[in-house]
Inverse folding.
């Protein structure tokens, strides 16, 4: 993992000192709210429905145990004992007091964490495949690139006050677990015919009110061209992107209006100017960063302990079947710890749970943790023989829910329970869907099915790319939920299609039940997943189940 | 045709605490919607909002929220304002927490 050098530590200390004085000046009246707001946003501080909210960056989702303990400390000391992991691999605290925030940021700085550029019209926290450095299907660990982009984009003078925010994701695997195609810009590590490693750059993806799937801007950018290339893309957009209308300001609209070809041409022109200004310092830095991400020395040894527990303990087996993924090293596995216990708030973890996960990572998992955009916590490197002990510890901490990829592993934004932008609640809808399917004991039979819920059109809950997407709206002063089907957040990314009119708050869970019942009727076999069935049979059977009365009217 | 004016309260978030506050008839701030001033005149509402906005050291993001008269004072007409005066639905935090503590003391 990346370790701060003296420059990094000094930069962060200075930035925190600046923000501390900005807070003081706001409190004593020297700064108006209009002056203070852009400053606090640039440091991750929002004012939400009930309180301030501090959004802390977890760069590319990677944490060491001490960092996780610091996140627990913030939750216990300055918040209400918990934190909320978000769909951009950040953590949010829902109840900080303005005066405490500088102290919170100083506590974070002690473990090399910060809240810089987690809001505002800047380049946001760079996200990555949460299995980075561990996945069996990976060409190369994408985190050194992510760290390079983080350093380059932090306080980049050209990109501090852009027309709108800019989100970047990176992945080095063939299976896309980072929702690359829903990002303003995405970097996919690829190999060319000569076997050289380079980068495919995608641009113009995004969700929100105008969802778009990202397009390939450049099939292969050479390793030493990447940073100047990204700078060129963002520079072109920063100059041409619309500033007259915030809803048309994101790069997806610029790409849509000007066309991919034009953006490519302008990027090439800009690149010709920018590239010579990169004298190689970025590559020297990159090589230094790469050394920080050397894989741990994976243990040898058989997996008898795992095999015995798998054969004898059905609870362990159920958890192993859903919550483990293939690791690149023999005898190892990737563990996903579900924060989605049935009825719990998706993405929330208590300070005690965070400390226990930190301890487990330190004792068993080579000292590494990850946060996924699906709001779960990952132990990326675990020897399989340690899994029974880990499972027992997780069970005791109420963290052993066996539901990864199932219907109760729901992404949900904070919605109107917290967010000032929300138009309806998300969390209780997620809680009720998870509880309902747990009561029905159906979820293992239903299999892989992703539900994603947003409480407003901005789509933090990724509803467009959920197999079942739910969007909460305010319809004439009442919460109303629109459903989309067929969304896909992977390398075969697709935007879901609306089923039709929305459903009232008390109708949404029954509506999801009818969709699931329809899938079970329609599927050809238990192996055919929801998305496959939907793609085969289309919208009609689901519509018929959702709107039986209107079907009759038409007939 | 312009829509008929509906009664309003002036509400904002507290600068230091961040929590929801309401303007009273005495020009002070309260954390209880019931204790807020219910404004029934449109011109008066704009004036009261300006007065709230002139107190940036207390109130952030002041605006006029729809409300209706109730037995104990103003009541919300929209679910957003119902959540603001109560707290989130997943935990008993926010204003409902303070109320629970107050009840426990009695």
């Amino acid at each position: 993992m990346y370790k701060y050098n003296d420059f990094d530590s000094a930069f962060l200390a200075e930035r925190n000192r600046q923000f501390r004085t900005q807070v003081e000046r706001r409190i004593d009246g020297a700064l108006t709210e209009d002056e203070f707001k852009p400053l606090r946003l640039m440091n991750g501080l929002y004012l939400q429905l009930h309180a301030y909210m501090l959004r802390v960056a977890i760069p590319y989702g990677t944490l060491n145990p001490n960092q996780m303990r610091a996140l627990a400390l913030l939750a216990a000391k300055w918040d209400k004992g918990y934190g909320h992991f978000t769909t951009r691999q950040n953590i949010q605290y829902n109840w900080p007091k303005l005066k405490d925030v500088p102290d919170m940021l100083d506590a974070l700085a002690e473990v090399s964490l910060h809240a810089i550029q987690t809001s505002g019209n800047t380049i946001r926290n760079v996200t990555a495949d949460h299995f980075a450095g561990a996945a069996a299907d990976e060409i190369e660990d994408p985190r050194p690139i992510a760290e390079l982009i983080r350093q380059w984009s932090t306080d980049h003078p050209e990109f501090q006050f852009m027309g709108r925010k800019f989100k970047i994701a990176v992945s080095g695997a063939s299976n896309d677990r980072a929702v690359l195609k829903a990002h303003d810009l995405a970097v996919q590590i690829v190999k060319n015919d000569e076997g050289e490693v380079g980068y495919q750059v995608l641009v113009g993806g995004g969700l929100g009110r105008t969802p778009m799937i990202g397009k390939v801007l450049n099939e292969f950018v050479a390793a030493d061209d990447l940073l100047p290339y990204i700078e060129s893309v963002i520079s072109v957009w920063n100059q041409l992107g619309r500033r007259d209308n915030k809803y048309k300001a994101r790069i997806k609209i610029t790409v849509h209006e000007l066309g991919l070809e034009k953006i490519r041409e302008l990027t090439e022109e800009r690149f010709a100017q920018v590239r010579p200004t990169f004298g190689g310092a970025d590559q020297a830095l990159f090589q230094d960063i790469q050394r920080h991400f050397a894989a741990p020395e994976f243990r040898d040894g058989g997996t008898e302990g795992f095999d015995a527990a798998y054969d004898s303990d059905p609870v362990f087996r159920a958890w192993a079947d859903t919550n483990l993924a293939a690791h690149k090293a023999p005898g190892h596995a990737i563990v996903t710890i579900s924060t989605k216990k049935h009825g719990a708030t998706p993405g929330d973890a208590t300070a005690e749970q965070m400390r226990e996960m930190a301890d487990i990572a330190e004792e068993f998992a080579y000292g590494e943790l990850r946060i996924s955009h699906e709001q779960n916590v990952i132990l990326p490197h675990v020897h399989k023989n340690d899994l029974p002990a880990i499972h027992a510890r997780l069970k005791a901490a109420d963290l052993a829910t066996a539901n990864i990829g199932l219907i109760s592993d729901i992404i949900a934004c904070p919605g109107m329970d917290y967010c000032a932008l929300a138009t309806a609640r998300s969390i209780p809808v997620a809680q009720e869907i998870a509880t309902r399917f747990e009561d029905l004991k159906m979820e293992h039979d239903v299999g892989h099915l992703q539900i994603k819920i947003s409480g407003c059109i901005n789509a933090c809950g990724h509803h467009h790319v959920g197999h079942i997407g739910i969007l909460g709206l305010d319809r004439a002063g009442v919460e109303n939920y629109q459903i989309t089907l067929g969304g896909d957040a992977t390398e075969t990314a697709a935007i879901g299609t609306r089923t039709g009119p929305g459903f009232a708050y008390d109708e949404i869970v029954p509506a999801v039940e009818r969709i699931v019942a329809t899938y079970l009727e329609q599927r050809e076999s238990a192996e055919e997943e929801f998305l496959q069935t939907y793609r085969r049979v289309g919208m009609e059977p689901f519509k018929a189940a959702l709107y039986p009365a209107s079907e009759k009217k038409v007939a | 045709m312009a829509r008929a004016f509906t009664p309003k309260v002036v509400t904002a978030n507290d600068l230091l605490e961040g929590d929801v506050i309401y303007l009273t008839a005495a020009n002070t701030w309260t954390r209880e919607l019931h204790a807020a001033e219910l404004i029934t005149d449109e011109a008066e509402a704009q004036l009261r909002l300006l007065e709230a906005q002139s107190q940036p050291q207390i109130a952030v993001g002041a605006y006029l929220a729809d409300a209706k008269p109730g037995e104990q004072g103003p009541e919300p007409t929209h679910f957003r304002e119902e959540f603001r005066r109560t707290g989130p639905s997943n935990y008993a935090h926010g204003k409902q927490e303070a109320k629970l503590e107050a009840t426990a003391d009695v």
Summary: Residues 6-27 of chain A form the longest helix (22 residues). Chain A touches chain B through 30 residues (CB under 8 Å).
